Amino acid sequence: HCRMEPQWERFDFAVDVSDVYPIKQRAVAAYESVFSGEQQKLLRRFEAEDQHIGRLVGVRYAEIFRSRAPLVVDDLTVFKSVRYG
Q1: What pLDDT, on a 0 to 100 scale, did the predictor assign at position 1?
Q2: Rounded to an integer, what distance in angstroms lies between the CA atom of residue 6 and that of residue 49?
Q3: Helix (H, G, I), strand (E, B), or coil: what is residue 51?
Q4: Helix axes 41-57, 21-29, angle to 10 degrees
Q5: Which residue, 19, 2, 16, is CA-closest to 53?
Q6: Residue 47: which H helix or E strand, with range?
Q7: Residue 41 to residue 38: CA distance in whole angstroms
Q8: Do 14 and 58 form a contact (C-beta atoms < 8 A)?
Q9: How would you class 24 by CB atoms within 10 Å of its CB: exposed for 0-12, middle for 13-18, buried for 19 or more?
């Protein structure tokens, strides 16, 4: 589930989306009826938020997620060690 509002004060993990960010921008921009006129400012806001989170975790762009339950992985290399903040 994705919520399009800032939840910077608490998140459980972040995903580095730097390599695919141009694709994300094109996909979101395709919703012209939603992001036209004054609403186009939201696209810049989303980018600024993704850059902010990216800076927090040491990448160019990142998206944050929260989890209601513990996360389980079978490969510890999926996590990168970063200095938060």
Answers
A1: 43
A2: 7
A3: helix
A4: 160
A5: 16
A6: helix 41-57
A7: 6
A8: no
A9: middle
What residue has token string 């990448």? 59
**3-state class of 34 per DSSP?**
coil
Q: Mention every residue, 6+ apart, whose C-beta is less than 8 A from residue 60.
A: 18, 21, 51, 54
CA–CA separation, 85 and 27 (whole Å): 29
Task: List the pLDDT tens digit at each of the 85 positions of the chain.
Answer: 455 555 556 788 899 999 999 999 888 888 877 777 777 788 888 899 999 999 988 999 999 988 889 888 898 888 777 766 5
Q: Are 17 and 62 in contact (CB under 8 A)?
A: yes
Query: Is residue 68 within 8 Å of 13, Cβ to Cβ?
Result: no
Can you tell me whether residue 16 is helix, strand or coil? strand
